[in-house]
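Please review this one:
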Amino acid sequence: DKYTLASGRAYMTGIEAQTHQVMRNLQAVLQGCGLTLANVLQVRIYLTRFEQDYAAMNTAYASWFPAGKRPARTCVGVTALAQGALIEIDMVARR
């Protein structure tokens, strides 16, 4: 299931799919810097449908980290994200 935006880019529908895609993208960026998710100190998550999507996002997000080894996190509800995305995540990591 995908929908196409005016720019021609496609996003998977649903918060779980988008969460996993964002995490794959961030993991690739970290690997390019010689880091892994274990190097992440802080995460900020932005959701456009906070009340509707938080629980499902949280389950998908948590699957990327071992229990008890998750970085500090802030999760914020926002009115909109770039190009209609449901979620945006940024990370702070160190060696």
User: Anything to note?
Assistant: Helices lie at 15-32, 50-62. Confidence is low (pLDDT under 50) at residues 1-6. Residues 15-32 form the longest helix (18 residues).
